[in-house]
Specification:
The chain is α+β, with helices and mostly antiparallel strands. The chain has three domains: 21-211, Immunoglobulin-like; 222-302, Immunoglobulins (Immunoglobulin-like); 314-416, no CATH class. It has helices at residues 8-19, 79-87, 314-326, 329-333, 338-349, 353-358, 374-382, 406-416; strands at residues 27-29, 31-35, 40-46, 55-62, 66-72, 102-107, 112-118, 128-136, 144-150, 171-172, 188-190, 203-204, 206-211, 222-232, 239-240, 245-248, 254-256, 262-269, 271-278, 285-291, 301-302. The strands form four sheets. Strands 2, 4, 6, 7, 9, 10, 11 and 13 form an eight-stranded mixed β-sheet that branches. It has a five-stranded mixed β-sheet with strand order 5-8-3-1-12, with no helix packed on it. The longest helix is centred in the last third of the chain and has 13 residues, at 314-326. The two termini are 37 Å apart.
Length: 423
């Protein structure tokens, strides 16, 4: 197990930037522990800063090993009360089927429950909006199971997800200066902002812990935010890797790194973890870390193995070379006139230019990959032109490049195209 150095200021800064939101309000899911056969109930409450909550819509995300057996709410009105408020004395129906104070729908297989509720008349004064009761599925193991609040996305008329619109607000309030029938009477209390895992940013998650012993096990402490960085040094200099997929294997949480290789996990229980990261062009790599409140920073680790699947396979590159020189035999006989070689290279790699950029085929380390500079040197190398100045002539960036010697260029090419020459 690796122990990592901790920078308290850096961790505190990252956590503050991620967790602090524009709103003072916050939802909190409580934690509960008990025995295997128990029903454990957690409460969803809102900060005391909120006077009135008049609408709620969200979903719960949890491990399908636990089952949501019932939902209770003493805060929201029944639909009967809402209809009576709307129609006044004209409301005479006895709609007993509308006596519930909320609607919900559960997918047992995926472990997700949708909840929506509304309120229009005074009800019991409490900050507890809901109580959710869970049981452990038959055959499931004793463990701690986190429960997350997630925003509900907007949908189109055909029930498909509308990616152009922000998710529904999680909580709304009531502005008494407007009639209750006006949309302006329901300002947003808690918006639909979420972290990279889809969990509501303004929410402290909950957890149920089932144990086998006589004494309930205390649930583990959760870390609000864990940060780290993915880098690579494949081309002679260390840089952050953008859009890397980073996964905590023990929890299944997966996030993506930003443009500089930084990533963030939220609501992580303290413990020992295996972190796995990779991209479409860099092989996956794993390492271990111990995460706690006092160590919420994952040490930087590097991805230093190419994944060439779907890019330049050996056979594909050989086919491209053969096609490029089939009509250029005279070039070979004349030791590759530079102009003719440039034309051959351009024809060979024109369809691969985007792939070259994605693979960071920057052999002279000038910060960019170009078909007629980096690509030209790669092709020259493949044709054995590694003597004297023939490899670098009119191709290497001697002004901006950080790798300009023949040995550096060859080392970078061999690292990019492992085994291509069979040497």
């Amino acid at each position: 197990m690796m122990h990592h150095k901790f920078n308290p200021f850096l961790a505190g800064l990252f956590i503050w930037m991620i967790v602090v939101s524009a709103h003072a309000e916050r939802l909190t899911l409580s934690q509960k522990s008990g025995k295997l056969q128990d029903t454990l109930c957690v409460q969803l409450s809102v900060d005391t800063a909120v006077d009135s909550v008049y609408g709620a819509v969200f979903s719960l995300d949890y491990d399908p090993a636990i089952v949501l057996t019932r939902i209770e709410s003493h805060y929201f009105d029944t639909f009967d009360a809402q209809l009576a408020k709307t129609y006044g004395n004209d409301y005479t129906d006895n709609l007993t089927a509308y006596g519930q104070s909320f609607v919900s729908e559960t997918d047992i297989q995926s472990g997700e429950t949708f909840v929506a509720a509304a309120r229009c008349a005074p009800t019991q004064i409490t900050n507890v909006l809901f109580q959710f009761c869970f049981q452990l599925k038959d055959g499931a193991t004793a463990d701690s199971y986190p429960i997350y609040v997630k925003p509900v996305p907007q949908s189109n008329a055909d029930h498909t997800i509308n990616l152009e619109v922000a998710p529904h607000p999680i909580l709304t309030g009531l502005d008494s200066s407007y009639p209750y029938t006006s949309n302006l009477a329901y300002p947003v209390i808690l918006d639909g902002s979420s972290d990279t895992a889809g969990h509501a940013l303004q929410t402290i998650h909950g957890m149920v812990t089932f144990s086998t012993g006589d004494d309930p096990v205390d649930p583990p402490t959760y870390i609000n935010a864990v940060v780290g960085q993915i880098t690579s040094g494949l081309l002679g200099k260390t840089e952050g890797v953008a859009n890397a997929s980073v996964k905590l294997l023990e929890t299944g949480q997966t996030v993506q790194s930003d443009a500089n290789g930084f990533y963030t996990f939220t609501n992580v229980p303290e413990g020992n973890y295996t972190i796995e990261a990779g991209t479409s062009f860099l092989n996956k790599s794993q390492f271990q870390a111990i995460l706690s409140q006092a160590n919420a920073v994952i040490s930087t680790f590097q991805l230093n193995q190419w994944n060439l699947d779907g890019f330049f396979s050996a056979s594909e590159l050989q086919d491209a070379v053969s096609q490029a020189v089939a009509e250029k035999q005279s070039i070979i006989n004349n030791m590759f006139s530079l102009n003719d070689l440039n034309q051959a290279v351009q024809q060979a790699v024109s369809e691969k230019e985007q792939v070259i950029a994605r693979m960071h085929l920057d052999v002279d380390c000038n910060g960019k990959a170009d078909a007629l500079t980096d690509g030209l040197m790669i092709m020259r190398y493949l044709f054995g032109m590694t003597q004297g100045e023939s490899l670098l002539e009119n191709a290497v960036d001697s002004v901006n490049g950080m790798c300009t010697s023949e040995s550096e260029i060859i080392e970078n090419i061999q690292r990019i195209l492992p085994g291509m020459m069979g040497k």
